[in-house]
Design goal:
Helix content of chain B: 25-40%
Number of helices of chain B: 9
Radius of gyration of chain A: 13 Å
Order of helices and strands of chain A: EEHEHEHHEH
Structural class of chain B: alpha/beta
Number of helices of chain A: 5
Largest sheet of chain A: 5 strands, mixed
CATH architecture of chain A: 2-Layer Sandwich
Strand content of chain B: 15-25%
Oligomer: heterodimer
CATH superfamily of chain A: STAS domain
CATH superfamily of the largest domain in chain B: Histidine kinase-like ATPase, C-terminal domain
Mean pLDDT of chain A: 90
Shape of chain A: globular
Largest interface: A-B, 24 and 26 residues
Shape of chain B: elongated
CATH architecture of the largest domain in chain B: 2-Layer Sandwich
């Protein structure tokens, strides 16, 4: 399934909604370009994964790369609403504590705000 | 629905179900494609002999000439178009016939228009595909030679996943993802994405297990050299390999082997490490 992306502003954060599969190739390239553009204007990003059906190694690498880019730019990056299958991928690759999946977009945005305030 | 990535391309829809023909014709025309329809294989073959098509959407079970016979006939044409098979028949015999006769990809019925349009877009725009060679086509023993192209991964996955329709969803998912990761590694690292080189895939199915063996044309590797892979990360530093990849200018990734180890029951490399085998035991 192809990847479609939409973004909206919520408080000081950019929330990017993903739909489809985040996999090596066109899809992960597309995600990186899209989020990097958003990071240019505001390095506080939430990736809403509620409608992501599948993440492979390349897709996971792209998400982790964006996390690193946001942190390097002095911002922060959280993921929200990942389904059980995607959370399983985060767990077995030991990324759960890095990516910090939140149950709601609002909770992820609030977590970003606390990072900004800290 | 997304617009056609290559408007004006010609698509022939062959299905004995009139309502499906009409629905696909409408959707494809709205997407910018030029579309013709045929109600069975004979009708379709006649059209293919008189007009040029870029893609054929082909049903399997139809009167007069079925889709499997048609697929064989179609390969005799001077410039056969790409073919997407669409069927509710997931038997290994049907699937293996479609691979052997060079179908581009397979989509199970029922499907969504969105998924069909996406597949059509991929089939129309993807680069020239080297053939997948079928060395063994027994349902319990499949052997293939697959060209080292990224697109070949999607193609072969669609066929092999459909063959596991009787398995529990979680088993299908685990085996599917493990195969995806290891085949990508073989094609990208072993085969250097060179379509003239081939990866040898063997799939064995018994009552109690599924076994895959993937042999790539590369020189192999050593785990101690894989500092760019998550499997080499020190405890407590999940991003160690990400920094290495950044320094080396490598694309994001490196989680494949770590993922696969957790998804299957056995993962064994040969000494040179250009061949890998994995097993998933069945209940």
């Amino acid at each position: 399934m192809a990847l479609t992306l939409e973004k909206k502003t919520q408080g000081s954060a950019t929330v990017i909604t993903c739909r489809g599969a985040v996999i090596y190739g066109t899809e992960s390239d597309q995600l990186r370009e899209y989020v990097k553009e958003a990071l240019g204007s505001a390095p506080m990003v939430v990736l809403d994964l509620a409608n992501v059906t599948y993440v492979d190694s390349g897709g996971l690498g792209a998400i982790v790369g964006l996390y690193s880019s946001a942190r390097a730019a002095g911002g922060d990056f959280k993921v929200a609403r990942a389904n059980e299958r995607v959370r399983h991928v985060f767990r077995i690759t030991k990324l759960m504590h890095v990516l910090e999946n939140y149950d709601t977009v609002e909770a992820a945005v609030a977590a970003l705000s606390s990072h900004a305030a800290a | 629905m997304q617009p056609a990535p290559a408007p004006g391309k010609r698509v022939l829809v062959i299905d004995d179900e009139e309502s499906l023909r009409d629905l696909l014709q409408l959707a494809l025309r709205e997407g910018g494609y030029a579309v013709e329809t045929a109600r069975d294989g004979l009708d379709g073959l006649e059209q293919l002999k008189s007009k040029k098509f870029d893609l054929v959407l082909l049903d399997v079970w139809m009167p007069r000439m079925n889709g499997l016979q048609m697929l064989t006939e179609l390969q005799q044409l001077p410039a056969p178009p790409r073919v997407i098979m669409m069927t509710a028949d997931h038997t290994p015999e049907t699937l293996l016939h479609t691979i052997r006769e060079s179908a581009y990809q397979y989509i199970g019925k029922p499907f969504t228009l969105e998924s069909m349009m996406e597949l059509v877009g991929k089939a129309i725009t993807c680069p020239e595909q080297a053939a997948i060679e079928v060395l063994s086509a027994k349902p319990e023993w499949v052997e293939l030679l697959v060209p080292c192209q990224k697109e070949a991964v999607d193609r072969i996955e669609s066929f092999l996943m459909a063959m596991k329709g009787d398995l529990a969803e979680e088993v299908r998912y685990s085996v599917g993802q493990a195969f995806h990761e290891l085949l990508l590694n073989a094609i990208e690292w072993g085969g250097k994405l060179d379509p003239n080189r081939k990866v040898h895939i063997a799939y064995l199915r018994t009552k109690r297990m599924i076994l895959y063996r993937i042999a790539d044309p590369g020189t192999g590797f050593r785990f101690q050299d894989l500092t760019h892979a998550a499997v080499s990360n020190q405890a407590g530093d999940s991003l160690q390999h990400v920094r290495v990849r950044d320094e080396k200018g490598m694309r994001p990734g490196g989680f494949g082997i770590l993922l696969t180890r957790s998804l299957v029951d056995e993962l064994i490399y040969n000494q040179q490490q250009n061949e890998v085998m994995f097993v998933k035991y069945l209940q």
